[in-house]
Structure formats: C-alpha cells, structure tokens
C-alpha cells in the first residue's frame, strides 16, 4: 500500500497572532512556523501503518515557497520515504491545492491520500473534499479511527451528534481529526538524517496545473478587546443584568 500525505507550513499554534498594521493579513515575518498540527497527525498515522507493515511507501507532499522544505524534512524525519515539493511563491488556496494534489495522485497512484482535516491558519476545511471530488474518489473526513482491510477503509468520524462509521473503497481521500493519534517526539538523529535526504522539486508547469482564481481578503481586523466583568452581590442583581443584555 502506498500513501500520499499532505503537509502544510503554518504559523506555530503557540504563537500569538498579530494583525498587520495595514490590515492586509497577519504578521508572518520573523514568526515561528511549523507543520500544521492536523497534518502532523496524518503523517504519524501513515508512519504507523508503515511500521506495522500495512503501508509499503509513504510520500509527503507540500506546496509553497522554499521555506516549506523545512516541514517536508520534518515529515521525512518522522519516517516518510520520499518528499515532493511543488514550488510557488504565491498564496495557495484550497482549490489550487486540490488541483495540485489531483495531479500528484495521478502521477504517484497511491492507495490513499491522507490529509489533516483543516489547516489552523485559514481553517478552510475544503482541500480534502475538493481533492476527492477532482479525483472522483470516495472520501471520509474528520477521522478519529481508521481500520484498513480487504481494499477498504473503515473510518470512524466525528460529527455534531457523536460518531459515524463509514466504509469506503480504496483509493480514497481521508482527512484526520485531533483524536486519531498523538504524534511522536522526533529524535535528533532522525532530524539530522532528514536534512541530508533529497526533496523532489516540481513546478506547476511540470504538473500541467493552473492556479485557481484567488479569493481576495479585503481587510483583516483583530477581534474587539473583551470587556471587563461585572461583580454582583445578589441573585436578583444578576438576573437584572442578564435581562439588560437580553441573555435571558
């Protein structure tokens, strides 16, 4: 079984986001970036399958500028066999990513395309679904448990009312949720070895992919500062304040 797993570079989840002074977006220069946490879970799952013999090859794929190579090397340090970097200096939105991933899937012929359910920078939650539609493959999203057998994937997914279990034929696109696993800590020797491994670089032209018309962000604003609380001395005063704010 061959698995493609997508990797996205995003601002580290521990960073306190600051809006750029001109409102064009958030401050990215000089800010720590890391692998999107949901993608890290996807990589971990693919490597676990490789370790137990379920998967024979795991290929990490990413789109972006030269800096994305850092996250691909992290994926290799986890245990991915190969890494493919589709280079572009432009912002990559979900439809463009889906077109690239379709081309890579047709080129690599995997049994599964594993992705994080969403990226923590834009929270779009669209790329996996769009990729499945482009490939005309089955899809299962928000996976918290995946079992593989007989050319099928049985996926337990998280929904608003609880859990739902789907069975999809392979090849398929599966997007993973937070509770699927806990990624391992990387060992320094693996990180050092990953720095020496080559990363295959491709251009959009080599994949015959055109970027989609981007959705333009008009302006970005920080949320309003939270107002201070009000101390009340009696239940009646509390009820009055809640009614005043139309909360009851």
Show unreliable segments. Answer: none
In which range does the helix fraction lie? 25-40%
Name the overall outline.
globular
Number of helices, where a helix is a run of at least 4 consecutive DSSP H or I residues:
7
And the CATH topology? Rossmann fold
Radius of gyration: 21 Å
Q: Work out the oligomeric state of the chains in this entry.
A: single chain
Give a quick account of the main beta sheet: strands, pairing sense, barrel closure. 9 strands, mixed
Total number of distinct structural domains: 1
Task: Indicate the structural class.
Answer: alpha/beta
Q: Find the count of extended strands (DSSP E, 2+ residues).
A: 11
**How do the SSEs run, as a string of H and E?**
EEEHEHEHEHEEEEHEHH
Strand content: 25-35%
CATH superfamily: HUPs
**CATH class designation:** Alpha Beta
Mean pLDDT: 90
Word description of this protein:
The chain is of the alpha/beta class and 248 residues long. The chain has a single domain (2-244), classed as Rossmann fold (3-Layer(aba) Sandwich). The protein has seven helices and eleven strands. Strands 9-8-7-10-6-1-4-5-11 form a nine-stranded mixed β-sheet, with helices on both faces. Helix 2 (69-78) packs across helix 5 (188-196) and helix 3 crosses helix 4. The protein is globular and about 65 Å long. The model has no long low-confidence stretch (mean pLDDT 90).
């Amino acid at each position: 079984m061959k698995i493609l797993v997508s990797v996205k570079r995003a601002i580290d989840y521990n960073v306190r986001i600051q809006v750029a002074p001109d409102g064009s977006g958030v401050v990215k220069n000089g800010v720590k970036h890391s692998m999107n946490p949901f993608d890290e879970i996807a990589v971990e799952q693919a490597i676990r399958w490789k370790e137990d013999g379920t998967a024979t090859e795991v290929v990490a794929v990413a789109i972006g500028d030269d800096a994305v190579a850092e996250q691909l090397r992290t994926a290799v340090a986890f245990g991915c066999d190969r890494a493919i970097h589709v280079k572009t200096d432009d912002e990559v939105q979900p439809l463009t990513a889906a077109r690239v991933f379709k081309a890579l899937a047709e080129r690599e012929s995997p049994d599964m395309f594993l992705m994080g359910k969403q990226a923590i920078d834009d929270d779009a939650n669209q790329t996996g679904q769009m990729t499945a539609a482009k490939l005309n493959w089955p899809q299962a999203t928000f996976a918290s448990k995946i079992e593989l057998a007989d050319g099928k994937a049985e996926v337990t997914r998280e929904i608003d009312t609880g859990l739902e279990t789907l069975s999809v034929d392979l090849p398929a696109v599966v997007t993973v949720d937070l509770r699927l696993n806990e990624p391992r800590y990387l060992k320094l020797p693996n990180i050092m070895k990953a720095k020496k491994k080559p990363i295959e670089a491709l251009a959009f032209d080599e994949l015959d992919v055109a970027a989609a018309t981007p959705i333009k962000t008009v302006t970005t604003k920080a949320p309003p500062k939270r107002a201070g609380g009000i101390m009340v001395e009696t239940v009646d005063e509390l009820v009055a304040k809640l009614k005043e704010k139309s909360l009851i």
